[in-house]
Each structure stands twice: as C-alpha cells, then as structure tokens.
Amino acid sequence: MFHPEPWAAAYINSLEKEGARFEDGIAILGILVSWVKSLPARNLGEVSGSTAAKRMETLIRKGIAEMNVSSAYDASLPALETAIRFLVLAVRKNAIRYIDQVINEIKKSLDKKNGVLTISAEYAITPDGDFESRIKEAIKKKTGANKVEYSGKLNKDLIGGYRLRIGDTVMDASIRSQLSKLEALLAVDGGH
Known about the structure:
alpha+beta; Glutaredoxin; single chain
C-alpha cells in the first residue's frame, strides 16, 4: 500500500532546503505532472526504473524549454530543479502513478502549516446567500484557522439537511443520517 505522506514531506523538505517558495514548488510540480501525463503513449503505472527515469528527465528538460516554464519561474529555479528531481525519483521508484495523491498530500501539509482549513458542504437545498460567509466565519472563529477555503454543492441524494467536511472530519446533519440513527436506536431498544 502506497503512503503519500513521506513523499509529500520529502518534497516540502527539499523545497525548504533549496530555499524555494512553496507556492512555486507546488505550481511547477503541477505543471510538470500535467505535461508528463499528456505525453503520448505513456501509462504512468508502467514507467519505472533507472532507464525510464533518465528518459523522463530528458523529456522533461526538453519539455520545459518548449513550455517556457523556466522563464516564467526564473525567480524560483530551485523550485523547478526540485520538481524535476522529484518527478525523476518518482519514476525511478515506481511511484509516479501515485503522484496525484502525493500532490494532494503536499497541499494538505502546506495548508496545515499555513493555518488554512478546507471545508466542503453538501446540501439538499441551496442555502441562502450568506450561508458561505457565516459558516466560514464560524469555523474560523471556532478553530483559529488563518484562512478557510469553502466549496459547496447541491446533492440531490440528500432528503434534507447537510453534510459538512472540515479537513478530515465529517459532520453529517442530513435527514437520511438522522433517520438511520433513529432506526438503529429503535432496533436496539426494540430488542429489550
């Protein structure tokens, strides 16, 4: 089983050691990963080993010249080099197929470090206009987060109520959830 956490920590540590900006490191890594995924006839799950890593590094460096990425990030060449080395290592260690998980973990780690809390909401009915700002303020106040990033969407499968995901915690205040809890309670009490 693959664990993205050590890979994310290694990338963040490498950026720190090189004195690169984290935002540049994530942006550049995202650009390079998108480019690598767009390569014709490349299945990321089948690209591994030292030879493949050397080929990948050559392709990435040629691609950077074509994409003009280096001039866009001249101020952060250490981030660019770190991203290249990281991708080459992922190919060598047969972890490139998990790169999206690693990137998500990097973002989560940096959000945590910067005091950014991610919230997603699902609701049965679109809430009123200031719901988002009220929920963001309440959570910011309750958790002490520096910033709250919010995304919400309508979920037709909910009968009523909402589900709120705050970081890795889920609060389920949906009618369906309440009915399931009531049903379980009645089943237990009905057995006496």
